[in-house]
Design goal:
Strand order of the largest sheet: 1-2-5-4-3
CATH superfamily of the largest domain: Poly(A) polymerase predicted RNA binding domain
Radius of gyration: 27 Å
CATH architecture of the largest domain: 2-Layer Sandwich
Distance between the termini: 24 Å
Low-confidence stretches: none
Strand content: 15-25%
Helix content: 40-55%
CATH topology of the largest domain: Alpha-Beta Plaits
Largest sheet: 5 strands, mixed
């Protein structure tokens, strides 16, 4: 335990903001709040301004530059007016900002080196009276501010640094990790960072925490943390089973071998074409990439559709006997991060790929099709007669193998390229906005995939150098 205490002490020195950093953030937030209040004063409705999020609660990791300001409008204000007034205030405060969209539009920009979100919401009396999902955020802030003392806030920062270090932090639908709110609730519920990792190493999902003991429904997620401000919601709903398992793995690793490296995201350079070819030669499997222009939507819409499309393609490839080893959805990682739909309109669409590694790229011209056991009279006779009357010269049988009828029939696709370039590949379950882009796809098989390294080098590194 002494080794762990020493490691955590050194990590705290690195990840907890220094007083000067806290003061600069406080000054900037106060200036932005004043500017927002001035813009609100020009509106024909009453509203107030509240700072929320980790920088409001003192639970941010040093170097994070986020300030979240919520403008609370009357609960009975209709949605169109909320959006109109909210955007007017946002553009007044952040004249160089741009509009983004959560449940409704808001303005995002940069001020004095800080990333600023200026979000309109309804000033409802309780989280049970939400008009939109963002209305609950001020309740989250109030709940945690009341429960996090300085020691717990420090442990929250440790927990966030740890989750960032192991790649499991972020509730966006690409990451599917731990949100800041979820992390803070877990630290508060379990009494600190060390109690959290000690508890997590022995979890057997599904695991449930209900801080206020008022769950109103049953959840079917691997981790359930009932929102103390809204008992109908699981705060951990976005968290994937893989990221929960990752957290458990590294919790055990940290407790067994304490070290600072677990709190530092590793630097992983993209693979170049030569390195990709080296992996291909070593593995002697066949890689296939289905490449197309990604639809111009925000990441939280894009990634669920990519994963759905990947699942569909994997099922189609497996059903035709090519034997999937592993698969991954990829998006062009050569672009600057954070670009939204407006940036893609100017720069052209990102490229996306459904990347599948298979055991074999070819199959025999015939495939085996087993019927029922001969003893199952009704079904067996129907199977036999359906093929006995078939005059197709490419069908062998029916014959008896063991106790059942069997035929060997012509295979529709003998190569994976033939299948993936056919109309049949588009018949699988694709994301709604992926489907039109999929019609204009390129299919690369084998060594040709290495030519994609300039676009997907980081994703190739993730695929060919996997870790927990």
């Amino acid at each position: 335990m002494a080794d762990l205490d020493a490691v955590l002490s050194r990590v705290r020195d690195r990840v907890l903001p220094e007083p000067a950093e806290r003061e600069r953030l406080r000054t900037t937030a106060a200036e932005l709040t004043a500017r927002t209040q001035s813009a609100v004063a020009d509106l024909p409705v009453d509203a107030d301004v509240v700072q929320v999020g980790s920088t409001a609660r003192g639970t941010w990791v040093s170097g994070d530059r986020d300030i979240d300001l919520f403008v609370r409008f009357p609960a009975d204000l209709d949605r169109e007016e909320l959006e109109e007034y909210g955007l007017a205030v946002g553009h007044a405060v952040l004249p160089d900002g741009h509009e983004e969209y959560a449940e409704h539009p808001y303005v995002k920009g940069v001020h004095d080196g800080f990333d600023v979100d200026l979000v309109p919401c309804h000033d409802v009396a309780s989280a049970s009276e939400l008009v939109s999902a963002v209305d609950r955020t001020p309740f989250h802030d109030a709940y945690l501010t009341e429960r996090l003392d300085d020691d717990l806030a420090s442990d929250v920062v440790l927990a966030k640094a740890f989750l960032k270090g192991i790649g499991a932090y972020g509730s966006d639908l690409r990451t599917e990790g731990f949100s800041g709110y979820l992390t803070e609730l877990l630290v508060a519920e379990l009494g600190g960072f060390v109690p959290l990792v000690e508890s997590a190493r022995s979890w057997h999902p599904p695991v449930e925490f209900d801080p206020e003991g008022h769950a109103e429904r049953t959840f079917n997620d691997p981790l359930v943390v009932v929102d103390p401000t809204d008992p109908t919601r699981n705060v951990a709903a976005v968290l994937s089973a893989a990221n929960l398992a990752r957290f458990q793995h590294y919790a055990r690793d940290l407790l067994a071998t304490p070290r600072e490296e677990l709190f530092e995201p590793p630097t992983r350079d993209p693979l170049d074409a030569g390195a990709v070819r080296d992996h291909l030669e070593r593995r002697e499997a066949t890689p296939v990439a289905v490449v197309f222009d990604a639809p111009n939507v925000v990441d939280d819409q894009l990634w669920p559709q990519l994963r759905r499309s990947l699942d569909g393609v994997v099922r189609g490839v497996d059903d035709r006997g090519f034997g999937v080893l592993r698969a991954q959805a990829m998006v062009d990682d050569s672009r600057e991060p954070g670009g939204g739909p407006a940036e893609r309109d100017r720069n052209g669409p990102d490229r996306a790929a459904l990347y599948v590694e298979v055991q074999t790229p070819t199959r025999p011209a015939v495939e085996r099709h087993e019927g029922p056991p001969v003893a199952v009279r009704q079904h067996a006779e129907r199977f036999y007669e359906s093929y006995a009357d078939d005059v197709d010269p490419d069908t062998y049988g029916p014959f008896i193998d063991g106790d059942r009828y069997v035929v060997e029939r012509e295979r529709t696709f003998t190569t994976i390229r033939g299948y993936l370039e056919s109309d049949a590949a588009g018949d699988v379950a694709l994301g709604a906005q992926i489907e039109p882009a999929f019609d204009d796809r390129d299919v690369l098989v084998g060594d040709a995939v290495a030519t994609l390294a300039d676009e997907f080098g980081e994703s190739f590194r993730e695929f060919y150098e996997p870790h927990p």
